[in-house]
Input
Amino acid sequence: MGANPRTHDEPPAPPSFEAVARAWLAANPQWSPGYSRQIRRYFENDILPAIGTVAVADLTPTHIRALIASIADRGARCAALLAQQWTSQVFSHAILQGLREDNPASLLKGLVRRPTVRHHPPLGWSDIPEFFQRLDAWDGHPDIAIGLRLLALTFVRPSELRLARWQEFDFDNAVWIVPKERMKMRRPHMVPLSRQALAMLRSLRA
Output
């Protein structure tokens, strides 16, 4: 009875860009949930449909240039810049894993010009009384009016106030503790609450 010929396992298929991108996302658990969702949304909507199925080792600057240009051409220059930045980080992850030797996205810096950001000018000191007078007369949703006043009294970022939970507020000690998960520096932030802020919060909770 003859021996069966020895079979050799076929080498595994090279990982796709999508597989490496998902590994890179999983390797960054320190990101806030909101930031992670933002990145995943960009990948699902723009990046993976264009290059996700291509082996990460086979992608060239030409592939990445076409991806970035297609996003920029629809007027989304900020999104194009983010796509370049995040694909570059995926390629850096691939290099660390020994999956390729170079980073094609890093060669394309300057392909899209960063749009000029024009911030709304801040209110002058003389404008603030008029602003609150108009806010008093505003017939919009009362929760929004309270939120605007709380921003002025606490000096927090709008997202910190918008995403706040009632368990963060210590009414007895007049302090609001914003958890580290919602802070850029990943440290809890203590916000003293004036009696006016406490009164507004109690009104809002009611």
